[in-house]
Design brief:
292 residues, disordered N terminus, eleven-stranded mixed beta sheet, alpha+beta, 14 helices
């Protein structure tokens, strides 16, 4: 899985970030974030620099499918301070003694609808503006990309979208015609590389969250309410976090003014923080941020 080290702020802003990084390391230490691959741009280019500049700490991030990250946490293959998932159900799989007791609470912070992003230079680009999306996806020769439904919530939502569409639009077999097998190797790609495949021209279209297409200024088809699906992002501090205090500061940061603005700028819809799990285990700093 792609390993992303989010300390390259100086290369992007160029305003004294070397000293800022040193100060953040001294004051807040390194915070390891395991996060949904659809948030790469938000974490790398917005949250990490802002958190660093504020002297809260530096962020070392690992991006990947939420289910895949959860599997690695359970298998003790990946250790982190904060876990950011694109599906509450993934968090539930880490709660309780039977699941390793890796987390005892989590809080929702944003949503992002599933969209169909497409390459503006693709020969199918004009069709997306002129025809029903589900017809375009069945075009001979169209190259589609999506994520693995077993490893990533976006892949699962893609299946749900097509299954719903075949009922709503009375198109029996639509899912099979568009996707082939659920694990079709011609379509299924790691979440953290899917956008890059589209941008490089290897794909004509793919299933993304709006935050991804917004960040990269890619044209996208907004799906109608009768079939729409969405990511529901959550954050938590993992049990046994090496830098628990830094993790608490980062989760709280998501709910303060700058954190909320950054999410909106990157195409996310912030939502009121609703806690699931043991309320008495939620750190006081996080509870205070939720009350703002």
């Amino acid at each position: 899985m792609l390993r992303r080290i989010l300390l390259a702020c100086a290369a992007t802003s160029g305003i004294g970030l070397a000293s800022g990084t040193a100060r953040a390391q001294a004051e807040g230490g390194n915070v390891t974030v395991l996060y949904a691959g659809s948030l790469v741009n938000l974490v790398e280019h917005a949250i990490a620099p802002a958190f660093n500049t504020a002297g809260q700490g530096t962020i070392q991030g690992y991006a990947g499918g939420s289910n895949k990250l959860a599997n690695e946490i359970r298998a003790k293959l990946r250790r982190g301070d904060v876990f950011i998932s694109a599906s509450p159900a993934v968090n539930d799989s880490l709660m309780g003694p039977g699941n390793g007791d890796w987390l005892r609470w989590y809080v929702s912070f944003a949503q992002s609808p599933l969209v169909i992003g497409y390459l503006p230079t693709s020969r199918f680009a004009a069709d997306f503006a002129a025809k029903p999306w589900w017809q375009v996806l069945q075009s001979p020769g169209i190259r589609l990309g999506r994520t693995d439904p077993k490893l990533d919530p976006k892949g699962k939502l893609t299946l749900q979208l097509l299954d719903r569409a075949q009922t709503v639009y009375r198109q029996p077999g639509l899912t099979q015609r568009v996707l082939g097998a659920p694990d079709n190797p011609a379509q299924v790609l790691p979440e953290e590389t899917l956008v890059g495949r589209l941008q490089s021209g290897q794909l004509d279209a793919g299933f993304f969250y709006a935050t991804e297409t917004t960040d990269l200024h890619l044209p996208a088809v907004t799906l109608p309410p009768e079939v729409a699906q969405a990511a529901h992002y959550t954050a938590t501090v993992l049990q046994g976090a090496p830098n628990r205090q830094g993790a608490i500061r980062l989760v709280a940061f998501l709910f303060n003014g700058p954190g909320q603005r950054l999410m909106r700028d990157h195409g996310l819809n912030p939502v009121p923080g609703v806690v699931t799990g043991a309320l008495d285990q939620v750190p006081a700093e996080v509870r205070s941020a939720l009350a703002q």
